[in-house]
Design goal:
This protein is of the alpha/beta class. It is built from 18 helices and 12 strands. The chain has a 6-stranded mixed sheet with strand order 6-7-8-4-9-12, with helices on both faces. The longest helix is centred in the middle third of the chain and has 27 residues.
C-alpha cells in the first residue's frame, strides 16, 4: 500500500514552504547536484510505508554519517553532462573523422559552441568514470554495499571502461570525441542515465548524512504496522532555536494522545515536532530526536493551521468538518493512520465544540490500529473521556506563574491542565486599560 498525505499536511508541517525558505526540505537539501535535489524532493512527496525499505534507506544514510564520506565529484561536472545529454538529435551527431585543414581554418569546429558542449560533456564523463573507479578502490561500504555493487557493475560496462583509458582533463582529439559521443549520447544513452541516477542517489545519501551529523539527528527504527508503537525520546522541532525536547510513548493501549494546555504553552509546536519527525522517519531520513522507534503508517494527516474558504462559502467550522470527514473515510478503508487535530472544532461555539470533541474522540478510540493526537482548550471534555475510555493518554503542557507573569516549561506532563490564563495575559498587555483611556469624553457638543 502506498503512503499518502495531502497538501494541508505538507503546509502544516512546512515541509516545503514558499520558495523552500525555512522549510524542512530546505534544511536537508545540501545536495551537490540538481539530480540529487530532485530525488530528495521525490522522497519528500512520496514517503515509504514498508519497514524494510525504510530501514534499508536509513541504514545507508547512517553509514555515510558515520564514515563522513564527502561527495567525490566536482558538482559542475553534472551540469556539463546534463547539458550535453539534453541534445540527442541525430543531426547533432559528430562524424568520426579527423578534421581537414579546411575544417580547421573555416569551420573552427573546436571553438564552435555546439562542439564545445559535446567535448565538455565527454570530458566530464571521463572524469566521472575515473572518480567512480577511485571510489571503488577502497572497501567498507556497509549498508551501501548492494548499491555500490550495482554501481560497480554498471561501471564495468565496455562503454565506461573505454572512458577509463582516456586521461582526466586531458585534451581529446576530435576523432576520439566523435567516437565516444556516438556511444555515450546515442548508443548507450540509457546506461549513462542509469549511472547518473545512482550517483544522484549517492549525492542524496551523503548530503543528508552530513545534516544528520551536523545537527545531531537520530536514525529511527521502523517496525511493522501491527506492532502499533511510537516511542520517541528527546523529540524537538528542528526549526525552533533552543527547542525544548520531549519524550512520548504511544502503544495500542494509549493510541490517543489528548493534549491540553494554555495558549502559548507550546501545544502546536509539539504537535508539529511529532508530525515532522514521523514524516521524516517514513522517508528513512534522520529525525530531530535522540531516539525513535515507530510502526509504519499508511498515511499522515494533520489539521493545525486550517483556514476557511470564503470563496467557496465554507466557514472555518465547515472546513474542520470536512477534515474529519476525510479522516473518517480513510479509516473506513482499513488504513493505519497518524492523525493530528489541533484545537478540534475551534470554529464553533463552546457547547457544540465540547459535544463534538467528546463524540469524535470516542469514535477515534475505537480505531486502535491508528494513532491520534488531539489538542483542545475544552478541558471538561477530557474529564468525560477519562471515564469512558482506557486507551486515551492524557498529557498537558504546563504554565507556571511567577507573580502575575506566566512562564512556560514546554515540557509534557501527565494529566489534564487546569490552566486558564487568557485574561492574565490580556491584563498584562494593558489592553483593557488602553481601551478605557482611549474612550472619548462626553461633552455638550457630542450630545447634540
Amino acid at each position: 500500500m502506498r503512503f499518502t498525505t495531502d497538501q494541508q499536511t505538507l503546509d502544516d508541517l512546512r515541509l516545503f514552504g514558499k520558495g523552500g525558505d525555512g522549510s524542512i526540505y530546505q534544511l536537508f537539501n545540501r545536495t551537490a547536484t540538481r539530480g540529487g535535489a530532485a530525488i530528495l524532493e521525490e522522497w519528500f512527496r512520496y514517503p515509504l510505508s514498508d519497514e524494510k525499505l525504510i530501514n534499508e534507506r536509513s541504514g545507508i544514510i547512517r553509514h555515510f554519517a558515520q564514515s563522513g564520506q564527502p561527495f567525490p565529484f566536482r558538482p559542475e561536472l553534472f551540469d556539463q553532462i546534463e547539458q550535453y545529454l539534453a541534445d540527442h538529435d541525430e543531426r547533432s551527431r559528430l562524424t568520426g573523422r579527423e578534421q581537414s585543414l579546411k575544417d580547421k581554418m573555416s569551420g573552427l569546429i573546436a571553438e564552435d559552441s555546439e562542439y564545445k558542449t559535446i567535448h565538455q560533456g565527454v570530458a566530464a564523463l571521463v572524469e566521472m568514470a575515473h572518480g567512480l573507479k577511485a571510489l571503488f578502490g577502497g572497501d567498507g561500504f556497509g549498508a551501501y554495499r548492494s548499491e555500490a555493487a550495482a554501481l560497480a557493475e554498471l561501471l564495468n560496462e565496455p562503454v565506461f571502461m573505454q572512458l577509463l583509458e582516456l586521461p582526466v582533463r586531458g585534451k581529446l582529439s576530435y576523432e576520439k570525441v566523435a567516437v565516444h559521443d556516438a556511444h555515450l549520447r546515442f548508443r548507450h544513452r540509457d546506461s549513462v542515465r542509469r549511472l547518473l541516477g545512482k550517483i544522484y542517489h549517492l549525492d542524496v545519501y551523503i548530503s543528508v548524512a552530513a545534516v544528520a551529523r551536523q545537527r545531531g539527528f537520530a536514525f529511527a527504527e521502523a517496525l511493522p504496522r501491527d506492532r502499533q508503537m511510537l516511542r520517541s525520546e528527546g523529540l524537538y522541532h528542528p526549526s525552533v532555536p533552543n527547542a525544548v525536547p520531549n519524550n512520548l510513548a504511544i502503544t495500542t493501549g494509549s493510541n490517543i494522545i489528548f493534549l491540553t494546555g494554555a495558549n502559548m504553552a507550546g501545544k502546536s509546536t509539539f504537535m508539529k515536532s511529532l508530525g515532522i519527525a514521523l514524516f521524516l522517519a517514513h522517508m528513512g531520513l534522520p529525525v530531530p530526536a535522540s531516539s525513535m522507534v515507530f510502526s509504519v503508517r499508511d498515511a499522515i494527516y494533520t489539521t493545525i493551521n486550517l483556514s476557511d474558504n470564503l470563496g467557496a462559502g465554507a466557514s472555518h467550522f465547515y472546513a474542520e468538518v470536512l477534515r474529519v470527514k476525510k479522516v473518517a473515510r480513510e479509516l473506513s478503508l482499513g488504513k493505519s493512520l497518524f492523525v493530528i487535530f489541533d484545537e478540534l472544532f475551534r470554529g464553533t461555539n463552546v457547547k457544540d465544540a465540547y459535544e463534538a470533541t467528546v463524540a469524535l474522540t470516542s469514535a477515534f478510540a475505537g480505531h486502535k490500529d491508528s494513532i491520534f493526537v488531539i489538542s483542545t482548550h475544552i478541558i471538561e471534555a477530557g474529564d468525560v473521556l477519562k471515564e469512558r475510555h482506557d486507551n486515551i493518554h492524557f498529557v498537558f503542557l504546563p504554565t507556571r506563574m511567577q507573580g502575575d507573569r506566566p512562564v512556560y516549561t514546554y515540557t509534557l506532563e501527565k494529566g489534564i491542565t487546569a490552566d486558564r490564563h487568557g485574561m492574565i495575559i490580556i491584563n498584562n498587555e494593558g489592553i483593557l486599560e488602553k481601551l478605557k483611556n482611549g474612550k472619548p469624553k462626553i461633552t455638550k457638543h457630542n450630545l447634540v
